[in-house]
Amino acid sequence: RGQDCMIKTECTTSFSFFLPFRVLICTLLFALVVAFSPHTANAQVDTSKVEFLINEVKKVLFNDQHQAIELCDDILGEAKDGYHNHYLAQAHRFKGIAYDILGDYAKSMYEYDRAENYAVLSSDTVQMANCWVSKGIIHHRLENYQLALDYYLRGLVVHERYNNELGIVGTSNNIGVVY
């Protein structure tokens, strides 16, 4: 019994002796990880440049899809994975729209899927709804009416929840066209 107490005391003593050093080492390691993590580098992305590029895409999207795709690629180069997901979602969705206009529905759907994934990562529910409506449009063009309707209805629920009048009107129109 005496040895048990002695062992416990030694363990407690040695642990408490090294505890400040362990805390210090963990703190230093954390500081190094934060300092050299990609998040720190990406946090310094020039968001004004990205927003400028997004506005440029909006200007040319329906007139010059190839230029819009190039601008979206520039946005994707500026806004790195994992840290500017809302910009990445917008860029991929715009690329999807450009490919849709060009008639390349497979590429369009691929871009919409990517946009939806980034919208989920950024918790941008309205952007998710926009992606669903865009996917519905592709399925409508491919005469997959039930699938188009399913996507439209998913988008409509979100647009109604956030009182997004433009989204409600556009999506309701799309639903009417399916019927």
Structural account:
This protein is 84% helix and 0% strand. The chain is globular, with a radius of gyration of 25 Å. The protein has helices at residues 2-36, 38-42, 47-60, 65-78, 85-102, 105-121, 125-141, 145-161, 165-178. It is mainly alpha-helical and 179 residues long. The termini are far apart.
Please render the helix and strand layout as text.
Blueprint lengths: L1 H35 L1 H5 L4 H14 L4 H14 L6 H18 L2 H17 L3 H17 L3 H17 L3 H14 L1
Structure classification: mainly alpha
What would you report as the Rg, rounded to the nearest angstrom? 25 Å
The oligomerization state is: single chain
What fraction of residues sit in β-strands? under 5%
Taking the sheet with the most strands, its summary is: none
Basic shape: globular
| Share of helix, binned | over 70%
Q: Count of DSSP E strands?
A: 0
Mean pLDDT: 82
Order of helices and strands: HHHHHHHHH
Distance between the termini: 84 Å
Count, helices: 9
Low-pLDDT residue intervals, each spanning 5 or more residues: 1-19, 30-43
